[in-house]
Amino acid sequence: MHFEGTADIGAPRERVWAFVTDPEKVSRCGPDVQRVDVIDPTHFKVVARAGVGPIRTTFALDVVFSELRAPDHASVRARGQAPGSAVEMTNTIDLADAAPGRTTLRWTSEVTINGMIASVGARLMQGAADKITQQVFACIKEQLEAPAAAST
Amino acid sequence: MRVQLTVNGASMQADVEPRLLLVHLIRENLLLTGTHIGCDTTSCGACTVLLDGRPVKSCTVFAVQADGRTVSTVEGLEQNGVLHAVQEGFTKEHGLQCGFCTPGMMMTSVALLERNAAPTELQIRQAISGNLCRCTGYVNIVKAIQYASTKMGEAKAEKQPAAAGRA
Amino acid sequence: MAVEIGGIGHSVGRKEDARFIRGKGNYVDDVKLPGMVYLDIVRSPYAHARILKIDTSKALAIPGVLAVITGKDLVPLKLEWMPTLMGDKQMVLPTDTVMYQAQEVAAVVATERYIAADGVAAVEVEYEPLPVVVDPIKALLPDAPVIREDRAQKNNLIWHWETGDREGTDKAFSASDVVVKQDIYIPRIVVASIETCGMVAKFDKVDGQLTVWMTTQAPHAIRTVIALVAGHLGLSEQKIRVISPDIGGGFGGKVPVYPGYVLAIGASVLTGLPVKWIEDRSENIQADSFARDYHITAELAAKKDGTMKALRVKTVADHGAFDAAANPSKFPAGLFGIVTGSYPFEKAFVEVDGVYTNKPPGGIAYRCSFRVTEAAFAIERLVDILALELKRDPADLRMQNFIPPQAFPYMSTLGWEYDSGNYAGALKLAMDKIGYAGLRKEQVEKRKRGELMGIGISSFTEIVGAGPSKHFDILGIKMFDSAEIRVHPTGKALVRLGVKSQGQGHETTFAQIVAEELGLPVGDIKVEEGDTDTAPYGLGTYASRSTPVAGAATAMAARKIREKGRLIAAHLLEASPDDIEWKDYKYQVKGVPAKSKTMAEVAFAAYTNHPQGMEAGLEAVDYYDPPNLTYPFGSYICVVDIDRGTGQVKVRRFFAVDDCGTIINPMIVEGQIHGGLTMGLAPALYEEINYDKDGNIQGGTLMDYLMPTSMETPSWETGKTTTPSPHHPIGAKGVGESATVGAPAAIANAVVDALAHLGVRHIDIPITPWKVQQILKEKGVAE
To answer: How many CA atoms does the CB half-sphere of C514 hold within 13 Å?
Structure first.
């Protein structure tokens, strides 16, 4: 499945870049994240619960930043397993200055899902995936625009 | 957890895991294997029993939810060697072939007739629409329930001859 | 007297009902043995992947988990592969590559059912996904990934099969006035009997005896297969007992050997404990019991006056990752050669290519003999398309072309000798009963008002009763069947059969055959099946073969008994055996009816007063090799109304005329037809199994697989004609599958007929509301 979108964020590009390439920070915007283990600045493991309709399961994801061209472009690959399901995602993030203190974030996501979530959840998958990606990027935007964030 | 239930009129107790399904309590603890398991998404109805008189899919009820309540299964339909009218209807009208959906189908039918003694064909079909059958094509199941309805109506009329004259 | 004994033709109440209505059936999951443990299976989420690692440690750490079996564990036992019924091989557990989603990857054995499930969730498997092939047409392209690395031939073509005269057919096509051609896809569906598959396997380490209770339609064949496949583990056929107890529906889905069975047996041999494996419904829908999946291109050549001349059919058959289809070994495309149907084509040519894809094995003979539903659907759709092309009434076109009654036995151009038929009679009866002429008038009126009503006909010929030893075998075992009858001193009889009912009522119908042949009341005859220690060897029940083959064996065994009884009767009546005749269900001295003996009296004498020099006892066994298949047939007429807003198809009426020759029990035959019609309605309007490009099954539970309930199923109307089979001892042809064969085309034809005036020629099944809506929108008539 392919997704893409644009977010307009009220924060300067450097801060957006720092946020989206920081495993600790950006993982907190993942759906129902239960744990983040940082192995090195570009490699981390995330345990998150995700699901479609009646099928909710816990994924163990291995996430790697495969391309980092500060402060413009990042590419992230995530592979995860759960009992009966498997997911593979390749996301790209491209940043551009919009206006002083504002950044345009363009993102794409290629997702392949196998197993129960894709079979039993087939009818509901597109809608659920849409919802999750909207939530993730809304969260990133909110985190970056919160007044407290200005000081970190 | 300790549960106590009345099953087909007899009280029983068991120590069960909270996650034990009622259908497994019935089949494995009580060894009443007439109630069958046909699916895992509450779709087929083969596991239907009466819980406090209401038809439920026992695969979607935890045993602990039945604590302190009454359960009726197919084994309780025959009383003192006399078949329930529904059982008689099913065999007289050839409403069963492999027999696997039959207990659940009959329990739903019993509950229907207790609620609505003279259902129309449409009402019958609606009532059993939660019970899947692969063998019979439902035509004779409908006839079986109509047979039972007639027989139960006659038995009631016999018991209350004065009332029989009143509609 | 016939009524009192409950012989052939009587709607005797079913003996098996007594236990089923009391919930006292004995199905495999009801079997409980002391010390029994449970087996559950880890399945692949991927359709094609290499297995990098299987970590069983967390599973083994769960209290109650006894063992986790992987492919590597089976290698030293030479059990990681097993042969299939089609001479291919199938993985029991993979050692390095999984081939389809839901494939078995590991088995967990635990003391409790729930703990086994916990164990399955705790097994961690690391996969490396591989390219997936789900389109069988694409699978045949030269650059397609090769799915079966284990085969010498490096492509995805399993086999090519053809029958008929290619050149002659091409010539006939060139010389014809009219040719109609249609691509027809019959999707994959799953059998989904209400009871799923399962087994309790009990291996006794002390005496080497293996006893299995198994959901199988063919217990003897299974016993021999176990002996051949696992003989090297010390299993010897005289010490293998397969018990097929009460089976909650088979329909062909309980014929193959699924890996779960082998794993249960292996686990029992390993642990020395009884092992129970019962699959969930999800496992059943996702991993086994698949049927159909035929991509057909069919062409019919005719004269402009409507005379059908030639037929040409090309099919791509999607078999999944292993060719485990249940067909007689010489017929990889089953009996698809019946595609000439009820019509006397002079020339025909049929070819089928079997293809591997990353899907679970398909090709179950799902209530269709072998591929007969596919064949009947193709021809009956083509006939309607021809009718549309020639602007002819579809009933009229069929009547014009039918093989006439006097042509039987009729040898089709594809080499099948149809035993008997009266196709025009069946169609005429159906038309009378449904009021065909009136319906056509009504359709004209409704069309003027923009209402969509359709009438569909299916005049099918079936081919069942496999089969004559000359052509038919399963893994080399010829397809005879058997009956053993023993009459006790008090005149009661015990009958044991090589077939196995899964709801068809054999305990009643076969007793009726014996009642008719021996004059014993049906209530005095006990029928047993399914225990390989006691039943004579048979090939089991599927493809409507029980009545044609085992039913014949039963009649023949009974006649052997009757013949011996004649000699005993002669002895008792002090007459010459030549003067004794069997009349009115008794032995009588010719011309002196008062001098007679019943079978019961003769039976008593067989043990107490038999002629000197004769063996005592009164029993016989018959292994019947049918001289031919049988050809039940019928005409179905379906009336539909289409909702222009929702696209929903409502079956207003459906009249089914069936001819199965001699009817043993009319009530049971009618029940079989009701059930079969419902299993024909299902794929016509509701059921299909699809895969996305990654090989994920779409749905895979009963939430998405739409089996008809009492609300979707119409009140079927049935009628009959009776054209006995001339070669069968009691003239019976079998009927269990006719309705599943004939119904889909009747329904599809009705829907197309409702839309034909808008230019619609064909719609692939299932004809869902969405498909109809798209058409209505396209034609500008949607509401």
So the answer is: 36
B137 touches chain C (CB under 8 A): yes
Using the 8-state DSSP alphabet, how is residue C531 labeled?
A: B
Indicate the CATH number for domain A2-147.
3.30.530.20
Contacts of B98 in chain C (CB under 8 A): 193-195, 246-249, 502-503
Question: pTM higher than 0.90, yes or no?
Answer: yes
Is the Cβ pair C709, B132 closer than 8 Å?
yes
As a residue count, chain B comes to: 167
Supply the CATH classification number for the domain C2-24+481-624: 3.30.365.10
Residues of C involved in catalysis: 217, 367-368, 737
CATH of the domain spanning B85-160: 1.10.150.120
Chain C residues with CB under 8 Å of B130 CB are 709
Using a CB-CB cut-off of 8 Å, the residues of chain A touching C46 are 86, 114-115
- On chain B, the residues whose CB falls within 8 A of the CB of C192 are 134
Cβ contacts below 8 Å, chain B against chain C, sum to 174
Identify whether the C-beta of residue C302 lies closer than 8 Å to the C-beta of residue C339.
Answer: no
Q: How far is A81 from chain C (nearest CA, A)?
A: 8
pLDDT per residue of chain B (167 residues) written in tens, 0 to 9? 999 999 999 999 999 999 999 999 999 999 999 999 999 999 999 999 999 999 999 999 999 999 999 999 999 999 999 999 999 999 999 999 999 999 999 999 999 999 999 999 999 999 999 999 999 999 999 999 999 999 999 998 888 765 444 44
The CA distances from residue C449 to C437, C650, C653, in Å, are 19, 18, 21
Listing DSSP states for C656-720 in one string gives EEEE-BS-S-HHHHHHHHHHHHHHHHHHHHT--B-B-TT--BS--STTTS----TTTS---EEEE
SS3 (DSSP) at A90? strand
- Nearest Cα to Cα of residue C370 among C254, C133, C537, C543: C543
- Asked if domains C2-24+481-624 and C399-464+630-783 share a fold, the reply is yes
- In CATH, what is the architecture of C399-464+630-783? 2-Layer Sandwich (3.30)
- Contact between C735 and C664 under an 8 Å Cβ cutoff? The reply is no
Q: ipTM of this model?
A: 0.97
pLDDT 10s digits, A18-56: 998 888 888 888 888 899 999 988 899 999 988 787 778
Q: Is B37 on the interface with C (CB under 8 A)?
A: yes
Nearest-Cα distance to chain B for C294, in Å, is: 23
Cα separation, B91 vs B107, in Å, equals 15
Q: Do B38 and B44 meet the contact criterion of CB atoms below 8 Å apart?
A: yes
Given an 8 Å threshold on Cβ–Cβ distance, is B134 in contact with C677? no
Given the DSSP bridges, would you call strands B10-15 and C37-43 parallel, antiparallel or unpaired?
unpaired
Instruction: Tell me the domain boundaries of chain C.
Output: 2-24+481-624, 399-464+630-783
Q: Which residues, in sequence order, are CB contacts of C393 under 8 Å at separation 6+?
A: C387, C440
Q: Position of tokens 């309590």?
A: B25
C652, HSE (Cβ side, Cα atoms, 13 Å) = 15
Buried (b) or exposed (e) across C593-629, using 16+ Cβ within 10 A? eebbbbbbbbbbbbeeebeeeeeeebbbbbbbbbebb
Residue C166's H or E segment, with its range, is helix C166-174
- Between chains, do B19 and C113 touch, taking CB under 8 Å as contact? no
Domain ranges of chain B: 2-76, 85-160
First to last CA, chain A: 36
Distance from C-alpha of C201 to C-alpha of C210, rounded to nearest angstrom: 7
Count chain A–chain C contacts defined by CB atoms under 8 A.
56
Q: What is the CATH number of domain B2-76?
A: 3.10.20.30
CA distance C131 to chain A (A): 13
Distance separating alpha carbons of residues C524 and C491, to the nearest angstrom: 8
